[in-house]
Design a protein that fits this description.
- The chain is built from twelve helices and six strands.
């Protein structure tokens, strides 16, 4: 999960804006008059240009495949098959998209811009992919337990350390999809196999094995009983909306001794808190770009 469910009308507006921005970049005086010509033009756009320019709806509530109410439907409780849920996000979900080794959305942008977009869009991902969802579902009286996590392995810790080589802890961190190897018990296979020997090395082998053992055990327990606890694992309580109640756990490994670092994470991220933090910590053109990306993410 991630992003907002936007209306078909808003998605069309975003698409129109994208076309205008692309034409402006090309210095075109006007858009092609025929749909066929416009389609041909869009197919001719350089993929890197399209990637760095496109900020359109990820999920469209068309009322056919996706409910027009979007996530608001969850607040009503009017859906079948209420079962215990385990879900969460990665700390650095968006850094794969801004990293030069990844999708490199800002090839000519400064590192400060890539870092800011990577951070605040990752926070936004957590809002829509975990915290807001958990808060809505927990308000439903007959909803079973919800177990929420944030995967931190790979992200730079409070002492500036990361199991990744070079500076990838800062520029990549716990990026989107990086949890899959651990969750599936494939801790020796990097999510991009061609780079396995670079990123999965002897220095982080024990750390990888520890993280995988924890996640496989949690997920196995949950699949069997609807509860991830057991096997002498650190206690993982279900999400509570009560003030001071348990929220999520962070999944990580201690850099010092490779022991599991599964700890409560009491913070609840909201759309308002992400905007507030961005405005408090950024300024100028970097703030403008981050706010633009947040507006598109949240459908504002």
């Amino acid at each position: 999960l991630g992003g907002s469910v936007n209306s078909a009308e808003l998605a069309l507006q975003q698409a129109e804006r994208l076309v205008d921005e692309l034409l402006e970049l090309d210095g075109a005086p006007e858009r092609p008059p025929a749909n066929e010509e416009l389609a041909a033009y869009l197919r001719s756009v350089d993929p890197q240009t399209l990637l760095s320019t496109a900020n359109t709806s990820q999920i469209i509530g068309d009322g056919l495949v996706i409910p027009a109410e979007g996530y608001d439907l969850l607040s009503t409780g009017e859906f079948p098959n209420k079962t215990p849920l385990l879900f969460g996000t990665n700390k650095d979900e968006q850094k794969l998209y801004t990293n030069p080794l990844g999708f490199n959305a800002y090839p000519d942008g400064p590192e400060e811009l890539r870092a800011a977009v990577g951070r605040y869009l990752s926070d936004a991902w957590r809002v829509t992919g975990a915290d807001d969802l958990a808060t809505r579902l927990r308000d439903i009286d007959d909803m079973p337990e919800l177990y929420v996590y944030r995967f931190n392995w790979g992200s730079t810790d409070e002492n500036g350390n990361s199991p990744w080589p070079a500076d990838f802890g800062d520029t990549g961190g716990a990026f989107h999809s990086s949890e899959i190897s651990s969750m599936m018990g494939n801790e020796d296979i990097f999510i991009f196999p061609a780079y396995t020997n670079i990123f999965f090395n002897e220095g982080n082998a024990v750390s990888r094995a520890t993280m995988s053992e924890v996640m496989v055990s949690n997920w196995r327990n949950f699949a069997r009983s609807g509860d991830p606890n057991g096997n002498s694992l650190p206690i993982w309580e279900p999400w509570s909306n009560a003030a001071g109640g348990f929220k999520a756990v962070t999944l990580d490994v201690s850099y010092a001794d490779n022991s599991p670092r599964v700890e409560p994470d009491p913070t609840v991220y909201t759309e308002e808190s992400v905007y507030r933090d961005a405005r408090a910590n950024l300024d100028g053109e970097i703030l403008d770009e981050v706010l633009r990306r947040l507006d598109d993410w949240f459908g504002n």
